[in-house]
Amino acid sequence: MAESEKIKVLYLDDEANNLIGFKALLRFDYNVFCAKKANEAFEILEKHPDIRVIFCDQRMPEKTGVEFFEEIRSTNPHPIRILITAFSDIEAVIGAINKGHVFRYVKKPWLDVDIITAIEEANKFYLAHSMLSQKNEELERAYSELDKFAYSVSHDIRGPLVGISGGINLALATNDINEVKEILKMMNKSVEKLDSFILSMHDYYSLERGELKITNINFQEIVQEIADVYNIYAKSANIKFTIDIEQNESFWNDEVSIKLIINNLLSNAFKYQIANNENKIVNLNIKVYKGEATIIVEDNGYGIEEKYQKEIFNLFFRAHHHATGSGFGLFNLKSALTKLNGKITVDSEVNKGAKFTIIIPHK
């Protein structure tokens, strides 16, 4: 077994002969660390936080094994603790269990089989406890995400509905056809916002629940389909929209995820343009080379403050108020990239624009 794969075990005992015998017994099958004093044990634990099992003799000159285990509970809660004692004093054992949260104890003089059995049982408990801790963390994140999801859904759906309802009331109170038309335009924006939010939620659940469907990707066809929509918007908003695609080899991947990534990048690039900028630009560059697709979307819009650049992929996070958004887009994009084993980097400066670079490997 490779050294890196061996279970790490620490033994604290003030008797050198015990340490030598312990290491001689386990040196081939385990990664063993020995310490004669508590401070030495703390140094070893600091250097090797992945130690899984700790043995400690009860009768130590500076402090008892129970006291040592009680002390490390706060600094090193994960290793499984085993007390070694030459005494059958039931009070010491009870103290070890209550104060030091000891997994078990082994009597001195110990037998080889007792030590090995204790390590194997402790390791099983360590793995089970680690898995449980991981599941608890995942559950806490899921509950937190659910809370934010419930709030965002109620806020982002109710907002457009209130706008539509208010528009209806205004329209009913006026006979001016021009005013009615203005109200209808406002209501249409609310409908578009609501539609965008619903589509984002659909993308979210498609990514969370869906499976990848690998096909041969033709970026020219995919981009043309998406660009038809953005070309119209570019003309109406006076934005110079350029596309450059270089693909001379096959690229197999999930088409739905690829479309979602490109669409979300372009949506943000168009959405966060500076309104009074006379030279608004959005550039899309795609290159497939040696089994990797590099997608770059660049704009000269509002940009993203450096302090927010790591948070923009969080669910419901909005970096600024210049344009309304659901907070789903970049989260969905990052989720899609995770499924595709892709990477993303952000290069942005406030009021100078943003550049998103994505690298996706061939499946």
TrEMBL record:
InterPro entries xrefs: CheY-like_superfamily (IPR011006), HATPase_C_sf (IPR036890), HATPase_dom (IPR003594), His_kinase_dom (IPR005467), HisK_dim/P_dom (IPR003661), HisK_dim/P_sf (IPR036097), Sig_transdc_His_kin-like_C (IPR004358), Sig_transdc_resp-reg_receiver (IPR001789)
EC identifiers of the protein: 2.7.13.3
GO MF annotations in UniProt: kinase activity
Record Gene3D superfamilies: 1.10.287.130, 3.40.50.2300, Histidine kinase-like ATPase, C-terminal domain (3.30.565.10)
Top-tier EC class: transferase
Record domain Histidine kinase: where: 152-363
Domain Response regulatory: 8-123
PROSITE patterns, A to Z: HIS_KIN, RESPONSE_REGULATORY
Catalytic activity as recorded in UniProt: ATP + protein L-histidine = ADP + protein N-phospho-L-histidine
Protein name: histidine kinase
The organism of origin for this protein: Pseudopedobacter beijingensis
Lineage: Bacteria, Pseudomonadati, Bacteroidota, Sphingobacteriia, Sphingobacteriales
